[in-house]
Amino acid sequence: MAASRSRTTAPDVLARKGSKPPIVMVTAYDAPSARTVDAAGVDVILVGDTLAMVVLGYDDTLQVTTADMAHHVGAVARTKPNALVVGDLPWLSYHVSREETVRNAAMLVRAGAGAVKLEGGRKRIETVQAILDTEIPVMGHIGLTPQSIHALGGFKVQGKELDAAKALTDDAVALADAGCFAIVLECVPDGVARMITESVPVPTIGIGAGRHCDGQVLVWHDLLGFGAPGHRRPKFVRPYADLERDAAAAIERFCADVRAGTFPSSAETYHMTDRMAEALGLDGAAPAERELTQ
Ligand code: KIV
């Protein structure tokens, strides 16, 4: 368990560029997941729009709204973590107008985020600047950007060809120049992630981007072994536990105890006084029943 620390800010994360140890970011979506990742000592908690898939059961991330995200950012922030809380701007929350973008980013900050994240490279520069103008730190996200799933043609590794790798590097440089304090690199070859990391003065945080990034991020459910039936685990996920199996086994034991009549025990029961039992006529209850009411 980590010792108590002061709250991490976006400038603290920016200051970690190129330093060791690497930055650790993990997603969380509610109070219990926020408490577990913060107690473990992560630097950044991302309330990701993966919420749609790992918590709400949708097939992609396009289904969540800013109100959904704010609801979950609030749950995470109310645990008062030491880690920086980054709220993910969902699809369509920063694509329509400058006013809507700023209002949506502010909604996540009012819910408790210390920064917001958005997807896309050079075409998002004005958007990034509009949010920065309202003094909200912005984290970029390039490579496989799940909000572009239809345009990309699926969840595929990005930057595999020379031109695409160069374009990603240009995107990262533009985001850093615009003022992003960190950039997520998702599903790109490690050499490309290395080139990008060496080209920008802000930390890169990789997911499926190899070990040359300034930090790493994983999704809470992937890291802990929760997955929908039939879900194929991406190769970049290292499950550190099998909590879905462990949780099902624990609940199976509860089912068995209830069905066998061994739950609740006397110690797990509130008992009435003998005087009240007598007044209610429970006195003559059979010993086994009497045991259950005392
Ligand atoms: O929404 C999310 O969880 C993310 C991570 C996969 C980086 O964007």
Offer a few descriptive terms.
294 residues; alpha/beta; 8-stranded parallel β-barrel; 13 helices; disordered C terminus
What is the topology?
Layout: H1 10-14, E1 23-27, H2 31-39, E2 44-47, H3 51-55, H4 66-77, E3 84-88, H5 98-111, E4 115-117, H6 125-133, E5 138-143, H7 149-152, H8 162-178, E6 182-186, H9 190-199, E7 204-207, E8 215-218, H10 220-224, H11 243-260, H12 274-279, H13 287-293
Parallel strand pairs: 1-2, 1-8, 2-3, 3-4, 4-5, 5-6, 6-7, 7-8
Helix pairs in contact: 4-5, 8-9
Protein architecture, described:
This protein is α/β, with parallel strands linked by helices. 41% of the residues lie in helices and 12% in strands. It is built from 13 helices and 8 strands. The protein has helices spanning 10-14, 31-39, 51-55, 66-77, 98-111, 125-133, 149-152, 162-178, 190-199, 220-224, 243-260, 274-279, 287-293, and strands spanning 23-27, 44-47, 84-88, 115-117, 138-143, 182-186, 204-207, 215-218. Strands 1-2-3-4-5-6-7-8 form an 8-stranded parallel barrel, surrounded by 6 helices. Mean pLDDT is 94; it is low at 285-294. The protein binds 3-methyl-2-oxobutanoic acid. Residues 27, 46, 48-50, 88, 141, 184, 186, 207, 217, 219 line the site of 3-methyl-2-oxobutanoic acid.
Outline:
By secondary structure, the chain is an alpha/beta fold. Helix content is 41%, strand content 12%. The protein is built from 13 helices and 8 strands.
